[in-house]
Design a protein that fits this description.
The complex is a heterotrimer of chains A (267), B (304) and C (399).
Chain A (H helix, E strand, L loop, with lengths): L4 H26 L18 H4 L7 H32 L5 H13 L2 H15 L5 H25 L3 H9 L4 H30 L2 H6 L6 H9 L5 H33 L4
Chain B lengths: L1 H7 L13 H29 L2 E2 L8 E2 L5 H40 L6 H12 L6 H11 L5 H8 L13 H25 L3 H9 L4 H12 L1 H17 L17 H11 L3 H25 L7
Antiparallel strand pairs in B: 1-2
Chain C lengths: L12 E10 L2 E11 L4 E5 L6 H9 L6 E6 L2 E2 L10 E4 L11 H11 L5 H11 L15 H13 L5 E5 L7 H18 L2 E6 L2 H7 L2 E6 L2 E6 L1 H6 L4 H6 L4 E10 L3 E6 L2 E6 L9 E6 L5 E3 L9 E14 L3 E8 L3 E8 L12 E7 L4 E2 L4 H4 L8 H18 L1
Parallel strand pairs in C: 3-8, 3-9, 6-7, 7-8
Antiparallel strand pairs in C: 1-2, 1-4, 4-5, 9-10, 11-12, 11-14, 12-13, 14-20, 15-19, 16-17, 16-19, 17-18
Chain lengths: 267, 304, 399
C-alpha cells in the first residue's frame, strides 16, 4: 500500500493525544518510586521503599480502606435500587413516567458542588453529624442515576419475548426473573456496579462537603496537596490503576474470545 | 460505561411497556424515596438556607430562617465576575475538549474498525485516566509545569516562553486542567455514536458527488450529534462547578477563582452558609437553563 | 394441569365472545372460534388484523377484555400463562441466549418437575434432527436450526395445544418450504392441536386443514383451503387469498339457478349457488387463472362469460405463468394468468383481446358494493408504519 501522509495524519494525531492523556499517569507512577523525604516533588533517585512501606505514611492506608468500604456499600445500594428502577421504567407503563425520568436525569445535570452543598445543608439543618453514613448516602445518590441509565439500556435491549417464553414454558414469575431476566441483565448490572464503584472511589467534591472527620483517599490527597503528598499515595494510586487496567484487559480478552467462539461456523 | 449509556438512551426504544401495575410502583418506590429524601429535599434545604440571616448575637456560622433575598444581591455583587469566569472557562474547556476528542473518537470508532485490537487498546487508553485519582493527575500537571521544573526551564531556554512566564496560577493552566480532565468524558459518548455509524452513508454521500469534507459536515457530523450533545453536557456541567483545577493548591491562583471555589470556601471555610447556598442555587439554575436550551436546540430531547 | 403429566392428545380450543381492547383501539371484536382437537388450524390475515393478539390471548400472555377461553372444555381464562397446557413457538424464536440448546429444550420440563427431563429433551432434539448441537448456544445455530430448536422446546412438553406465531417468517423461501413439510410431519406424528398464525397465504393453505381469514379483529371466513380459495365470501378474502378480478353491477335477470349482471353493457352470469346475494347491486369475481385470453373475437357461448375489446396493457413473465393486465373500457383492468404452454408470451402489449371464463368459475360476494370496490390489501409497508405509529401514540397517550 502506498504511504499517504493524509491517511496517516489521524493515527499519528490519536497516538499523540493518547500519550498526552497518559503523561500524568506515567508521572504519578514514576514518582511512586521516588526516594523522596518530606515532599514528593523533586526526583531524588529510584527506590522500592515506598511500595514496601505503603502503610507507614500516616493516613494513606486508612483513607484507602475507607474509600474501598464506602465504594462497596454505595455501589451495592445504588445498584440494587437503580436496577429495580430501570426495570420498572422500561417494562411497565405508569403515570408520571416523564417526571420520574426527569428526576433521574437531574442529579446528572447537577454540578457536584451543588449536590454536595445541598446535602451538607440538609444534614446541617437536620442536625445529622457528618461521617461515614453521610458519605455513603451522598455516594449512593450520585451513582444511582448512572446505574439506572446503564441498566436501562440493557433492559431495553432484552427481547420481552424471552420472558414470555419463560412463562409459556411453565416458569412462575419468580423463576422467570431469576432464571431468565436476571442472568440476561447481569452484564449490564455488573457494568453499572463497576462504574458506580469507580465514581465513588474517585469522588472528591461531594465527599468533601459531607465527610466530617472521615478521610477518603481523594480527600487525603486534597488535604495533603498543600503540604506535600507522600509518595505512598502514588503507590496506592498506581496499584489501583494497574489492578483496574488488568481487570479491564482480561475482561476484554475474555469477551473477544467468547465472541470469536460464537462466530465460529458450524454445520 | 455510563458515558456510553448517556449517549445510548436516545436509541433505547421502549420495548412494549404494557402492564400498568403495582409491581412498577414497588420497583420504583425505594429509588423515588431516596431521590426525594436526598436529592429534592436538599435542594429545598439549599433554597431555605440561601434566604437565612445571621442569628442575632449568634456565633459565626449560626443562622436563622428569614426571607433575606438580599443574600442573592450581595452574592451577585461580590461574585458576579467569578460566575462569568466559571462559565467562560467551562465553555472554552468544553470547546477545546470537543476539538481534541472528536478526531480521537473518529479514529477509534470509524477508521480503526478494521483492526479490533487497535480499537480495543485505544479505547482502554482513553478510559485509563479514570483508573487513577484525578486529583493526583491534576497535581502531576502542576508539578510537571511548576516554575522551577525542567519542562518550564527547557521551554524558556528554547525561547518558546518568555523568561518570566508562569503556568500555574494562570487562566490558561486552569482551562488546560479542565480540558485535560474531561477529554475522556467527551471522547466516549462521541465514540459510541460514531462506532454505530453505518459507513455506507459515507459511501452514499461520496457516490452523490460530495467531497470528503462535505461528507463530514453534512453526514458524519449530524449523525454524531447525540454523542456530541452528551459529551459536551458531561463536560460542561461538571467543569462549570469544578473547583479543583482552579484551586490554589492545584493549577489555579487567586485570580482564577471559579464559582465552585467560592461555594466551597463560603460553606466550609468561612461558614457563610447562606452565601454558599445562594451561589449554589444560582449555579444550578443557570446550568439548567443552559442545558434545557441546548438540548432543545440540538433536537435531542429524548436524551433524558 | 401444568405439573407432572403430559397431555394425552391434542385438546379442543374454544373462544367465546372474546374482545380485546388496548388503550385507543380494539384489537379483537367479539370473536367466537372453535378448533377441534388434533387439527392444524391457521389464522391468516394482514399485520394488525388481531391474529397475533388472539394467539397471545390463548397463550395467556394477554388477558381478554371480555369473553372466555376454553381448552379441552376447561375454562382457562383466568389461568396464568405458566399454568396453561399450551406452548408457543415465538416469531423471534425467543431462545434463551444464556442457555445451551439442551437447557433451552429442557427448561419447561424442569419447571414442571418432570422426570428424565434431559433424556426427553434429547428425544425432542432427535425428532428435529439437532441432537448433535445439544451443547451449543442458540447464537451458534443458523436461522432454520434455531426455528427447529424452538419447535422442539415447545413440542417436548406435549402441550394440548401448540401455538405457532409466524415461526417461518424469518427464513428464506427454500428453508421455509422445508420447514413447512417438517412441521406438518411433526404434527401428524405427535397428534397435537396446532394453531398457526401467519400472514403468508401460501403457508396457511399448504399446511392447515382449516384456515380462518382474519381482518380488523374479526374472522371474515373460515373453511378448508380449497373452499376459501374457490368460493371467497368477501372482497377481503377474495383479494387477500390469491388475486381476484371483481366486478360490480346490477342484477338484470335471474333464472332458477343463475343470476345475470349488467357490467358496462356486458352480461356476466354467476350461478346462484356460488353467489351470496341475488338481487340489486352485486359484486362478483373470478380468479385470474380461470380466464382464457383470445386474440380473435369470441362468439357468445352458453356457459361462458365473455368480455371483448380489451387492450393488453402489461405483460409480465414469471416462469410458470405469464400475467397479463388487460384494460376494458368502462370495466377496468383485468388480470389474467396464462400457463406458459408454449415458448414466450402469446400476445404483446397493445394487442386487442377478449377474455372468457366458464360461468361455473365465477363467485358472488357478500359485501355491499359501496364498501367492496377493488380491495387493496392492508399489508404494504406504509400502512404497517401508520398502524405502528398509531399503536405507539395510543401507548403514549395511555402512559
Amino acid at each position: 500500500m502506498r504511504f499517504s501522509f493524509g491517511k496517516a495524519l489521524l493515527p499519528i494525531y490519536t497516538v499523540l493525544a493518547l500519550i498526552f492523556l497518559l503523561i500524568p499517569i506515567g508521572y504519578t507512577f514514576a514518582f511512586s518510586f521516588n526516594a523522596s523525604d518530606k515532599s514528593n516533588i523533586v526526583w531524588r533517585g529510584f527506590t522500592f521503599n515506598n511500595w514496601t512501606t505503603v502503610c507507614q505514611a500516616q493516613g494513606v492506608c486508612d483513607s484507602f480502606v475507607n474509600s474501598i468500604f464506602i465504594g462497596v456499600v454505595a455501589t451495592a445500594l445504588a445498584t440494587a435500587i437503580g436496577t429495580a428502577m430501570a426495570i420498572a421504567l422500561v417494562r411497565y407503563r405508569f403515570r408520571f413516567r416523564g417526571p420520574v425520568s426527569l428526576l433521574l436525569f437531574l442529579p446528572m445535570a447537577t454540578p457536584e458542588v451543588v449536590m454536595g452543598a445541598g446535602l451538607a445543608s440538609q444534614f446541617l439543618t437536620a442536625g445529622v453529624e457528618k461521617g461515614m453514613t453521610t458519605i455513603i448516602i451522598a455516594h449512593t445518590l450520585f451513582c444511582l442515576s448512572f446505574v439506572v441509565v446503564t441498566v436501562k439500556a440493557r433492559v431495553a435491549s432484552l427481547d420481552p419475548a424471552l420472558e414470555e417464553a419463560g412463562r409459556d414454558l411453565y416458569g412462575s414469575p419468580a423463576q422467570v426473573f431469576w432464571r431468565i431476566t436476571f442472568p440476561l441483565l447481569l452484564p449490564g448490572i455488573l457494568a453499572a456496579a463497576m462504574l458506580s464503584f469507580a465514581l465513588s472511589f474517585d469522588d472528591f467534591i461531594i465527599t468533601y462537603f459531607n465527610s466530617g472527620s472521615i478521610y477518603t483517599f481523594p480527600k487525603f490527597v486534597y488535604i495533603s496537596a498543600a503540604r506535600g503528598i507522600p509518595a505512598q499515595a502514588n503507590v496506592i494510586a498506581s496499584a489501583v490503576f494497574i489492578l483496574a487496567l488488568t481487570i479491564v484487559i482480561v475482561s476484554q480478552v475474555f469477551a473477544s474470545r467468547k465472541a470469536k467462539k460464537l462466530a465460529a461456523p458450524i454445520s | 460505561m455510563a458515558f456510553a449509556a448517556f449517549a445510548n438512551t436516545a436509541q433505547a426504544v421502549d420495548a412494549a411497556p404494557r402492564k400498568s401495575s403495582k409491581i412498577a410502583l414497588v420497583l420504583l418506590a425505594p429509588g423515588l424515596a431516596y431521590l426525594a429524601l436526598f436529592f429534592l429535599t436538599p435542594l429545598v434545604a439549599l433554597i431555605l438556607t440561601s434566604l437565612q440571616a445571621p442569628a442575632l448575637y449568634g456565633d459565626m456560622g449560626e443562622y436563622v430562617y428569614a426571607f433575606r433575598w438580599e443574600n442573592y444581591v450581595a452574592v451577585v455583587n461580590e461574585y458576579g465576575e467569578t460566575f462569568l469566569r466559571s462559565f467562560g472557562y467551562a465553555l472554552i474547556a468544553t470547546m477545546a475538549a470537543l476539538l481534541i476528542s472528536y478526531p480521537i473518537a473518529y479514529f477509534i470508532g470509524v477508521r480503526a474498525r478494521k483492526w479490533p485490537a487497535i480499537q480495543a487498546i485505544a479505547l482502554i487508553l482513553v478510559i485509563a485516566p479514570f483508573f487513577i485519582s484525578f486529583l493526583l493527575r491534576t497535581l502531576a500537571w502542576k508539578q510537571i509545569f511548576s516554575d522551577d521544573s525542567w519542562t518550564m526551564e527547557t521551554l524558556k531556554a528554547l525561547s518558546i516562553l518568555g523568561p518570566d512566564a508562569h503556568f500555574t496560577g494562570t487562566p490558561f493552566a486552569v482551562i488546560f486542567g479542565l480540558t485535560y480532565n474531561f477529554i475522556p468524558f467527551m471522547t466516549l459518548p462521541i465514540y459510541t455514536t460514531l462506532e454505530r455509524l453505518d459507513t455506507r452513508y459515507l459511501e452514499a454521500s461520496g457516490d452523490l458527488y460530495a467531497r470528503p469534507s462535505t461528507t463530514f459536515f453534512k453526514v458524519t457530523l449530524p449523525l454524531s450529534m447525540p454523542g456530541i450533545v452528551s459529551g459536551t453536557l458531561l463536560t460542561f456541567i461538571p467543569a462549570s462547578g469544578d473547583y479543583i483545577n482552579a484551586s490554589g493548591d492545584f493549577l489555579g491562583g487567586p485570580s482564577t477563582q471559579m464559582v465552585g471555589n467560592a461555594i466551597q470556601s463560603n460553606f466550609l471555610v468561612i461558614l457563610q452558609y447562606p452565601a454558599a447556598a445562594a451561589l449554589s442555587i444560582m449555579l444550578m439554575a443557570v446550568i439548567l437553563v443552559i442545558v434545557a436550551i441546548y438540548v432543545k436546540r440540538s433536537g435531542t430531547e429524548d436524551l433524558i | 394441569m401444568a405439573t407432572g403429566t403430559f397431555a394425552e392428545s391434542g385438546a379442543d380450543l374454544e373462544l367465546v365472545g372474546i374482545t380485546k381492547r388496548f388503550p385507543g383501539f380494539t384489537a379483537i371484536e367479539n370473536l367466537d372460534l372453535f378448533i377441534p382437537a388434533g387439527s392444524f388450524f391457521a389464522l391468516l390475515g394482514p399485520s394488525g388484523c388481531g391474529k397475533t393478539t388472539t394467539l397471545r390471548l390463548v397463550a395467556g400472555l394477554e388477558e381478554p377484555t371480555e369473553g372466555k377461553i376454553l381448552i379441552g372444555g376447561k375454562d382457562v381464562t383466568n389461568m396464568k400463562s405458566y399454568q396453561r397446557p399450551v406452548n408457543t413457538v415465538f416469531q423471534s424464536y425467543a431462545l434463551f441466549p444464556h442457555m445451551t440448546v439442551l437447557e433451552n429444550v429442557a427448561f419447561g420440563l424442569h419447571r414442571r418437575g418432570i422426570k428424565d427431563a434431559v433424556a426427553k429433551a434429547h428425544e425432542a432434539l432427535i425428532l428435529v434432527e439437532l441432537d448433535h448441537v445439544a451443547n451449543r448456544k442458540p447464537q451458534q445455530l443458523s436461522g432454520g436450526q434455531q426455528q427447529r430448536v424452538a419447535l422442539a422446546r415447545a413440542v417436548v412438553n406435549r402441550p394440548a395445544l401448540l401455538l405457532l406465531d409466524e415461526p417461518l417468517g424469518a427464513l428464506d423461501l427454500k428453508l421455509r418450504r422445508q420447514m413447512q413439510l417438517e412441521l406438518k410431519a411433526i404434527q401428524t406424528e405427535v397428534g397435537l392441536t396446532f394453531l398457526h398464525v401467519t400472514h403468508d397465504q401460501e403457508e396457511a393453505m399448504t399446511m392447515a386443514d382449516t384456515v380462518a381469514v382474519m381482518n380488523k379483529g374479526r374472522i371474515e371466513q373460515m373453511g378448508a383451503p380449497q373452499e376459501l380459495y374457490e368460493l371467497p365470501r368477501t372482497a377481503f378474502v377474495a383479494s387477500f387469498l390469491g388475486q381476484s378480478n371483481l366486478f360490480t353491477g346490477q342484477v338484470v335477470a335471474s333464472t332458477s339457478d343463475t343470476i345475470s349482471l349488467d357490467i358496462a353493457g356486458n352480461h356476466i352470469v354467476v350461478p346462484k349457488a356460488r353467489a351470496a346475494r341475488h338481487t340489486g347491486l352485486v359484486t362478483v369475481g373470478v380468479r385470474p387463472e380461470k380466464l382464457t385470453l383470445h386474440t380473435e373475437t369470441q362468439t357468445h357461448d352458453a356457459g361462458q362469460n365473455v368480455l371483448t375489446g380489451g387492450v393488453v396493457k402489461d405483460v409480465s413473465f414469471s416462469g410458470v405463468s405469464t400475467q397479463y393486465i388487460v384494460s376494458f373500457p368502462d370495466v377496468g383492468d383485468i388480470v389474467v394468468f396464462a400457463q406458459n404452454m408454449v415458448f414466450g408470451p402469446v400476445v404483446h402489449e397493445g394487442a386487442i383481446v377478449s377474455v372468457s371464463w366458464n360461468i361455473e368459475r365465477g363467485f358472488g360476494i357478500e359485501d355491499h358494493p359501496e364498501q367492496a370496490g377493488k380491495f387493496v390489501p392492508d399489508d404494504n409497508t406504509a400502512s404497517i408504519a401508520v398502524a405502528q405509529r398509531k399503536a405507539l401514540s395510543a401507548e403514549l397517550e395511555g402512559a
